[in-house]
Amino acid sequence: MLFHVRMDVQLPHDLSVEAHADVLAREKAYSRQLQRSGKRPQLATHPSEI
């Protein structure tokens, strides 16, 4: 059974633009890796990807 879960994450406001972009890029790459490996094929980073 699958469940729909939404996570709202707020990065620190004092995080630099470069660090913010780096965190987002690494998390997106990690989720894509999990999707491609078959461990979490149902992961979506945006509702339009479901």
TrEMBL record:
Cited InterPro entries: Dimeric_a/b-barrel (IPR011008), MLI_dom (IPR026029)
EC number from the UniProt entry: 5.3.3.4
Domain (Muconolactone isomerase) ranges: 1-45
Keywords in alphabetical order: Isomerase
Record GO terms (molecular function): muconolactone delta-isomerase activity
Keyword Isomerase assigned: yes
Protein name (record): Muconolactone Delta-isomerase
Gene it is expressed from: catC
